[in-house]
Amino acid sequence: MIQQTQYTPTPTKYNFPHSALQDTALPTRFIELSLRSIKNIASQDATLYQPYETTTDSTEPSEEITPVFLGQTKLKLNQIPLKPIREEMPIVAIDVSSIKIGETTTGILLAIRGAIVWKNKHSYHYLRIGPFPFHITEENKTEIYQLFRQYSLETPEPENNHTANTPSLSHIQTRITTLLERWLQMNTATQSQNTLILWDGSLTAGTNDSPTHIVAQLLETARNRLNTVLAFTKITRLRLSGHRLTDLIEKCKPPCLLEMDGYPTAPSNTIHFLGNIYVAKLTQGNCSFRLDIDRKLPREQGVEAIQRLIANDQLAESYPETLRLAHIYSTFTANEVIAIQRLLAQTHGIKTITRPNIRRLLFGPFGKGPEGG
Fold it and tell me: What is the pTM of this model?
């Protein structure tokens, strides 16, 4: 069991150097566009078809590119023992998740939410951004996507590329979730100083919504304010000659890192690894994680940052408590999904029904698996 520590909700003020996050226009634009898209359902007298099973699985930005280390590479594995550095240092963690509330005759209804958790001294504090429900259709998906992209990446696409590069309805949930996370990461980097900033995911760049120059700018902003970015990947497929690297570290005594040296930093013309990749086992237990540390930081500074994390944050199964709480506060529960559906029914008169499970109707107890189109 994790020791119960003080968790303090801070809806109006928080202990960042500046409270620019509250003054930014993005939440206002989110609310306006969210309300407008929801009213669109009511104006069309549409029905909301909720999934036949209420799920609590939220979609989070995921690691899209996994390096494969083959036996013929010059990769070297180095074990780095860790010793806690017991000097007080603030820790901030960011996580974002989204969930599909249901479908309408014209589109899909999503809800998205972000959470920032930080620890000062012996107290944890948190700030939630959202939830924002969006009714996304073929007609409004470009407007919604470009809003996320403009504020998150600060680089709106050329007018003639908007429609071409807007993802399909089946992929837009993951893409806008990633963009909201980038926005929160940038705001946190600019408002924090001399802080450990924890990201959920990797420092892989070069994908559609994680352009290399944007992720590099995020890391540079953090460095300029004496922050250190540590990115934890909960589920990783890192392998060396067919063996899981997270299994190889089991032979090492925690807390320790397994350093990988000799892998290419750019496995393709577009994909770049902007972090030094480690496997981290920070406590006794069954879990270990991929850990990316900003490559432009001196190696000793990156290792020192982990040693400060060990001393300043609670850890369970090698995972930091701040990042665990960020995940919990951003993730949607089944009760929250029902509450959103109920709110839509009360405020907009939207009728909610359960969509029939075609597989169960056709195949009975053998009708397993997700509904597909």
Answer: 0.84
